[in-house]
Amino acid sequence: MPHDWVIRAGLVVDGSGSEPKVADVAIDGGDITAVGRVEAPGRQEIDASGHIVTPGFVDLHTHLDAQIGWDPMLTPVSWHGVTTALLGNCGVTFAPCRPGD
Question: Most buried by CB count within 10 Å: which residue of 19, 37, 45, 88?
Fold first, then answer.
C-alpha cells in the first residue's frame, strides 16, 4: 500500500542527538510512519538528496511578544521551519502601554 508521502534519500536529523543519517521518511495522515529504507511508494514523493530533513526546529530565544512592534504582518516563524517557539524568556514586557503607544 502506498504512503501519502515519501521523502527520499535526505540527510535525516531527528533531534534525538544521534548522528544524522541518509534515510527515507514516510508520512501517512500527517504522521511520520517510517524512517529508514522505505520500500513502498508514496502517492507524492520528494527527492531530498543533498538536503537536510528535520521534523522542525525549536527557537529557544524569540522576541515574538514584541514582534507586532516591528512586523505589522506578524510573519509566522513556521515560514522558516520553526515548529516550536519559546516566548517571554527575556524578562521584558511591552504591556501595559500608554494608549498612544
Answer: 45
